[in-house]
Structure formats: structure tokens, C-alpha cells
């Protein structure tokens, strides 16, 4: 497999890194984090101008025609600056659902608005009782003539308070945990019967709780076939994990660089503490975690677009385990090497640690995915 970037990918990465270096230094991010809506509309517009928002969409829909590899490159750069913009929510999650389940008419209407930076979308799927079980859907959608009526509650909807449209999973048949019977609906965020409560995650990314009370949508709002939404959900779920793995590479790259520089600058007994062998060993551990994360991110990304469900799921689960175990351990080591200042809001390293910790919980934590791998027979089984 060729892991070298194409000329177009190299140009994209260079342009994105220049933009983020200019607009997203730590002090710039602090201003964005402390303000409303908790992300930068100006940066989002510039990402759209750069073409970043069109990456995974087909050319006939107004996109770039890229794949998971292009998303991984973007997520690595965005992770390096702890971006707060809704790229994961709008392009990877909601955009992925449109790509996998939407009709040509639905994509034709919505993709150009996403690509242009005009429309924020969010996937409203998680529910409080799910415990990471993807097929756990209690929200219902009942037929009412030519319409559907939705009732239920959704949790941890990334950028849910900012979204203009939701993609909502709801059960049209079957029991709560069944894979069959899950349908997907496009719902206007300001539709009658929708209420939302916005808040910030521990790493300051915006999220929301969504309540649907007798929300009526037309039959044309159905995304894909009725009762057949689970396959698209599972595929986009694995693609989102691959994207997070790409972000983890960016996070660990910056964690290593920040920690190494701190060890060179901080002096004890008249010498830089970087000269202490035991601290050098800790730095090497962070480096090893970074290289392991890079390898598993490439593996998950290579499988993210596959229709081989079992192999794709195993790759995603392995990436999530690596993020939750080695990635988190590396971030904890970096905090220890910084000492007390490492847990203060004034030091960037604390914010990287929080992002790593939150990412461990998104889409299932390490323990959950270890169980998944055990059920699937580990990575070594054919």
C-alpha cells in the first residue's frame, strides 16, 4: 500500500496548515472557546473557501470526490490545533449519512449548502440508554397519512445547538435494540415540536440534547428506505472513528512537540530537565504511542470505505482501543512531565489532554471496543 500523499493531498495539507497556523494559534483558540457560539464562523467560511468541506462528497453532488484518506489528512491538521469547528458533525457524520443513504435530490439540495459553508448539519442518533449500542433506538416514527410523526430524545448531538438540519434516527418497527426497523429522517431544526439544550463538552466542543415531541415530517424527509437505516449508520460510525483516529495523530504530534519543548526549557539543578534519562524514556513512550496511532489510523482509514462490514468494523474497533489506551496514556504522561502547570487552563497541554479524554468516550470507549474485537475474533483472524 502506498502511504505517500498525492500532489493534490500535499497541496491541501500545506494550505490548511498555513491557514490554521495563521488563524488558530492557542491564544486565538482561547478567544473562540470563551465566546459564542464556541467555534469560529470566520474560520469555517475560510475552510469552505479552501475546499475542505467538499472533500468526501461526489463530484456530481458538488464535491471533490475524495475518500477517507482525504478526511484523515484534514482531521490530523484540525486535531493539531484543537479545532472547535463542526467538521466532524457536519461533513463526516451528517454528510456521511447523506452520502450513504440520501437520494440524488436530497444530496443535490443539501451538499452544495454544506460545501459552501452555509449549512450546519448534525446527526441526532445517540440516546441515554444506548450504552454505546448502535442499534439502540427508542425514538419512534409513526406513519400519519403521507407523513411521519417523531417522538423521542437524543443525547450528545455534536453541534446540535447550531445545526440548521438534523438527520434523526427513529424506529418505525421492531424492538429497541433491533438492527432492522431503524429509519432516518431529515428534520428542520426549527420544526414545531423540537426543543434543544446546548452545552459544551469537557473539551469545549459544542453539543446538545434534542427532544422531539410530535414532530411531523413529510414522507420526502425519509433518508433511504424505511426500516433500513442501520447499515448506513454502521458505516458512517466506522468512518467517524477513522476520522477521529486521524485527529488523534494530530493531537499526539502536538502533544509530543509541546512536551519536548517544555523539557528543553524547564531547568532543574541548573540544567534542562530534558537531560534526565528517565524523562527521556517517557518522551520516547509518547513517540511510540504516536507512531502506533499513525499506523492504526492508516489501517482504519484504508478500511473505512469498504463494504466488507466485519473487516471495516474490526479496523475501527482497533483504532478506538488504541486511542483510548495508548493515546490516553501518552496524554497522561505529558501532563506528568509538565508537572502542576500541566493541569492549568493557561497551558495548551491540558486542553489536548481533555480532547484525548473526550475522544475516548465518543462512539464507544476502549473497553467497549475491546469487547467488540473479542466478539469479532480479534485482528488476527481471517
Brief descriptors of the model:
single chain, 382 residues, alpha+beta, Butyryl-Coa Dehydrogenase, subunit A, domain 1, Butyryl-CoA Dehydrogenase, subunit A, domain 2, Butyryl-CoA Dehydrogenase, subunit A, domain 3, 3 domains, four-stranded mixed beta sheet, 11 helices, globular
Tell me about this structure.
By secondary structure, the protein is an alpha+beta fold. The chain has 3 domains: 7-119, Acyl-CoA dehydrogenase/oxidase, N-terminal domain (Butyryl-Coa Dehydrogenase, subunit A, domain 1, Orthogonal Bundle), CATH 1.10.540; 123-223, Butyryl-CoA Dehydrogenase, subunit A, domain 2 (Beta Barrel), CATH 2.40.110.10; 230-376, Butyryl-CoA Dehydrogenase, subunit A, domain 3, CATH 1.20.140. It has 11 helices and 10 strands. The chain has helices at 7-23, 26-34, 41-50, 68-80, 87-101, 104-115, 230-265, 277-304, 309-338, 348-361, 366-376, and strands spanning 121-124, 140-144, 147-158, 165-171, 182-188, 194-200, 206-218, 222-223, 267-268, 271-272. A 4-stranded mixed β-sheet has the order 1-4-5-8. It has a 4-stranded antiparallel β-sheet with strand order 2-3-7-6, with no helix packed on it. Strand 2 and strand 3 (147-158) form a beta hairpin. Helix 8 packs antiparallel against helix 9 (309-338). The model has no long low-confidence stretch (mean pLDDT 94).
Amino acid at each position: 500500500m502506498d502511504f505517500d500523499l498525492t500532489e493534490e493531498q500535499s497541496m491541501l495539507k500545506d494550505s490548511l496548515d498555513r491557514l490554521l497556523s495563521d488563524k488558530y494559534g492557542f491564544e486565538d483558540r482561547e478567544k473562540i472557546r470563551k465566546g459564542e457560539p464556541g467555534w469560529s464562523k470566520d474560520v469555517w467560511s475560510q475552510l469552505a473557501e479552501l475546499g475542505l468541506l467538499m472533500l468526501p462528497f461526489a463530484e456530481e453532488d458538488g464535491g471533490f470526490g475524495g475518500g477517507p484518506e482525504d478526511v484523515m489528512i484534514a482531521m490530523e491538521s484540525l486535531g493539531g490545533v484543537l479545532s472547535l469547528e463542526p467538521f466532524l458533525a457536519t461533513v463526516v457524520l451528517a454528510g456521511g449519512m447523506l452520502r450513504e443513504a440520501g437520494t440524488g435530490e436530497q444530496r443535490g439540495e443539501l451538499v452544495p449548502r454544506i460545501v459552501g459553508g452555509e449549512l450546519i448539519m448534525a446527526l441526532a442518533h445517540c440516546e441515554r440508554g444506548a450504552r454505546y449500542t448502535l442499534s439502540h433506538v427508542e425514538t419512534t416514527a409513526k406513519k400519519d397519512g403521507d407523513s411521519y410523526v417523531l417522538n423521542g430524545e437524543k443525547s450528545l448531538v455534536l453541534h446540535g445547538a447550531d445545526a440548521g438540519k438534523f438527520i434523526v434516527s427513529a424506529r418505525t418497527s421492531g424492538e429497541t435494540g433491533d438492527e432492522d426497523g431503524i429509519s432516518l429522517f431529515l428534520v428542520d431544526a426549527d420544526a414545531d415540536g423540537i426543543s434543544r439544550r446546548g452545552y459544551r463538552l469537557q473539551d469545549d466542543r459544542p453539543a446538545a440534547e434534542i427532544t422531539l415531541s410530535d414532530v411531523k415530517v413529510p414522507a420526502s424527509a425519509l433518508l433511504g428506505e424505511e426500516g433500513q437505516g442501520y447499515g448506513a449508520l454502521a458505516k458512517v460510525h466506522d468512518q467517524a472513528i477513522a476520522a477521529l483516529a486521524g485527529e488523534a495523530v494530530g493531537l499526539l504530534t502536538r502533544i509530543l512537540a509541546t512536551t519536548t519543548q517544555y523539557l528543553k526549557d524547564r531547568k532543574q539543578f541548573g540544567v534542562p530537565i530534558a537531560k534526565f534519562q528517565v524523562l527521556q524514556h517517557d518522551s520516547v513512550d509518547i513517540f511510540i504511542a504516536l507512531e502506533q496511532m499513525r499506523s492504526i489510523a492508516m489501517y482504519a482509514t484504508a478500511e473505512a470505505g469498504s463494504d466488507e462490514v466485519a473487516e471495516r468494523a474490526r479496523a475501527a474497533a482497533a483504532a478506538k482501543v488504541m486511542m483510548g489506551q495508548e493515546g490516553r496514556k501518552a496524554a497522561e504522561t505529558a501532563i506528568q512531565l509538565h508537572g502542576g502547570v500541566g493541569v492549568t487552563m493557561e497551558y495548551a497541554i491540558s486542553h489536548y489532554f481533555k480532547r484525548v479524554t473526550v475522544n475516548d468516550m465518543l462512539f464507544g470507549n476502549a473497553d467497549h471496543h475491546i469487547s467488540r474485537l473479542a466478539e469479532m475474533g480479534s485482528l488476527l483472524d481471517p
